[in-house]
Amino acid sequence: MTTGHATSWAEWVDSGQWNSSGDTAMPMLPALAGDVMTLALDPDVSVLRIARVISKEQVLATRVLRLANSAYCAPMQEITTINDAIVRMGTAAVRNVVLAVCFASRLQAANVYGPQGRDLVDHGIGSAYLARLVAERAGLDPDEAFMFGLLHDIGKLVLLKLVRDFIKAGGQAPTPAEIDAFVRDHHAEVGARVLRQWQLPETLIEPVRYHHAPDAAPAHKGEAAVVYMANRLSHRYGFGCAAGDADDIAEDPIFTELRLNAQWLKDTDQRAPGLFEVARQIVA
């Protein structure tokens, strides 16, 4: 990999030189996560078949069982097998746990993503559970919402990795201000490119691409609005970021469009922090 004729990191990223000749910064979806997602998206797949895949990885199997027995799932009796966990939570929920575990384990290395990596993983996990809550209220698919909530800022992680790659290739390190501005303006587009590389459906890609501008989404405005609101709420609670955003969140037109109201917000203010801590301990 070389910087070619690029004179700055932003120019190098824009040129696409970093993504040529097979040397790509796009994170690959771990094989196990890919297998589970493919199976979970098959309406005819058996519980036993998914269980066999998950059971190959002891750490992952343990975390699936831990979530199935958590207060979040509220089981009537202790769940001790992966089969029972899948039946209890559903194939889509198990798929989401697998993706969250892989996301947390692969995308927080400080030597690759810098000090922001861990915060971005936490922000993704918090936003995933908030997106699920918002989607349930709005009458949209909560399991899909979990996925695009988890992945909405993956473009930021890719761009942070590209800073390291550019410097290793002999380029001059960009300033923090240059990085912040470019990441702010381009992370949604880059994130969508990652998900297309992973061959995920447009119902997941489009909300990531338009999570800052849901009205611009061509076909999935409701889903984009869900992740937009989940992101605002995640900033409100300080999930992977400084708390304090969204004091006026109930005045946002999208808040009303999603059928949210003051009582829902009050309940979520009380519920969300505890939910986040449980999720963080289980999947991260």
Describe this structure in words.
- This protein is mostly helical.
- It has two domains: 28-106, no CATH class; 108-284, Orthogonal Bundle (Hypothetical protein af1432).
- Helices cover 65% and strands 0% of the residues.
- The protein is built from 15 helices and no strands.
- It has helices spanning 9-15, 31-40, 47-54, 58-68, 82-89, 91-106, 110-113, 116-138, 142-151, 154-168, 176-197, 202-209, 221-237, 253-257, 262-283.
- The radius of gyration is 19 Å and the shape is globular.
- The chain starts with 8 loop residues before the first helix and ends with a helix.
Secondary-structure topology with pairs:
Elements: H1 9-15, H2 31-40, H3 47-54, H4 58-68, H5 82-89, H6 91-106, H7 110-113, H8 116-138, H9 142-151, H10 154-168, H11 176-197, H12 202-209, H13 221-237, H14 253-257, H15 262-283
Helix pairs in contact: 2-3, 2-6, 3-5, 4-5, 4-6, 5-6, 6-9, 8-9, 8-10, 8-13, 8-15, 9-12, 10-11, 11-12, 12-13
Radius of gyration: 19 Å
Helical stretch tally: 15
The CATH architecture of the largest domain comes to Orthogonal Bundle
Helical percentage? 55-70%
Order of helices and strands: HHHHHHHHHHHHHHH
Q: What is the molecular shape?
A: globular
Give the count of structural domains: 2
Which parts are unreliable, with pLDDT below 50 for 5 consecutive residues or more? none
In whole angstroms, how far apart are the ends? 32 Å
CATH class of the largest domain: Mainly Alpha
* Quantity of strands, as a count: 0
CATH topology of the largest domain: Hypothetical protein af1432
Structural class: mainly alpha
